[in-house]
Amino acid sequence: MNTFTLNDGTKVPQIGFGTYQVTGDDGSAAIKAAVEAGYRFFDTASLYETERVLGRTLKESGIPREDFIIETKLWIDEMTDPRAALERSLRRLGTDYVNIYMIHWPRATGKADEPWKEQDLETYGIMERLVEEGKVRRLGLSNFLPHHLKNILENCRIKPVADQLELHPGYSQEAAVAYCQANDVLPIAWSPFGRGDQNSTTANTILMDLAARYGKTAHQINLRFLLQKGILPIPKASSPEHIRANLDVFDFNLSEDEIPMLSCMPQTTWLGEHPDYCIPQKASNPDNI
Ligand SMILES: NC(=O)c1ccc[n+]([C@@H]2O[C@H](COP(=O)([O-])OP(=O)(O)OC[C@H]3O[C@@H](n4cnc5c(N)ncnc54)[C@H](OP(=O)(O)O)[C@@H]3O)[C@@H](O)[C@H]2O)c1
């Protein structure tokens, strides 16, 4: 597969596999199909409760651990003790290191007087030590808008390699992408299909017209757009056809006129969680140790 180069020189496959809701036997079957289709980059998080099934299924593939990139994240209620959070993730994944370890959300409480800058730096500082100890290869962030990312970039010793954001033509967050790219931080697109919502980008006329023009699906146009914008998508799929189709996007190029048509299309949907104003009310599962 084609690769993107991270700011530490590491090459990563241009498409990863998302594992939110990829649970149980069905989840294991989807991950197995993804490995067989050629995915080597897998995204999970302690919140998803998919680390265990991911670690087990990758091990069962018989493919060496070093061939996989495993990306996981600590949740907001784990920010005060990243070391313990990582130990739990490593145990569930059945591995002794993760390739990319992310702070899942930039604000732990969302209260107006929350000292989020200090909390982010404290959490990130401990994560830097985990890199030095070899339990984490590199660090990343998730849902960090430019002001959150700036705080880290101005104070870190080890630069984050990536920032995971909700990104697709229907919610393109151009300012956040531009800030990441200006600072050599790879934008990773979560929910690259807007989670398959009927009103999402994939039902948009522009995407459907381009799909007909290239003999592809709207989902594939969506992925191709992200790739050409220098964004690494991590689609989730459970159907083997979708899993394979989402890698079949390297044999065509959108033209330089078509990219702005998609960049400027109406903003049709988003998952509705703003990093500053809508702090997810979920808690990590204390039994998930
Ligand atoms: N950092 C964060 O805060 C955050 C938040 C949300 C998600 N994420 C990550 O991003 C990953 C992807 O996002 P997501 O799971 O929310 O949703 P998504 O990838 O945008 O959409 C998944 C949906 O699209 C369908 N689909 C996939 N490929 C398709 C294709 N080629 N044709 C038609 N339909 C297709 C899937 O159907 P089938 O399952 O039936 O195949 C599923 O219903 C997550 O799994 C997770 O790893 C991160």
Layout of strands and helices, then pairs:
Blueprint: E1 3-5, E2 11-13, E3 17-18, H1 24-37, E4 41-43, H2 51-60, E5 69-74, H3 82-93, E6 98-103, H4 116-132, E7 136-142, H5 146-153, E8 162-166, H6 174-182, E9 186-190, H7 205-214, H8 218-228, E10 232-233, H9 240-245, H10 258-263
Parallel strand pairs: 3-4, 4-5, 5-6, 6-7, 7-8, 8-9, 9-10
Antiparallel strand pairs: 1-2
Helix pairs in contact: 1-2, 2-3, 7-8
Residues 18-20, 43, 142-143, 164, 190-196, 217, 219, 234-239, 242, 245-246 line the site of NADP nicotinamide-adenine-dinucleotide phosphate (NAP).
Can you describe what's shown?
- There is one protein chain.
- The chain is 36% helix and 15% strand.
- It has 289 residues and is an alpha/beta fold.
- It has a single domain, classed as TIM Barrel (Alpha-Beta Barrel), CATH 3.20.20.
- An eight-stranded parallel sheet has the order 3-4-5-6-7-8-9-10. A two-stranded antiparallel ribbon has the order 1-2.
- Helix 1 (24-37) crosses helix 2, helix 2 packs across helix 3 and helix 7 (205-214) packs across helix 8.
- The model has no long low-confidence stretch (mean pLDDT 94).
- NADP nicotinamide-adenine-dinucleotide phosphate is lined by residues 18-20, 43, 142-143, 164, 190-196, 217, 219, 234-239, 242, 245-246.
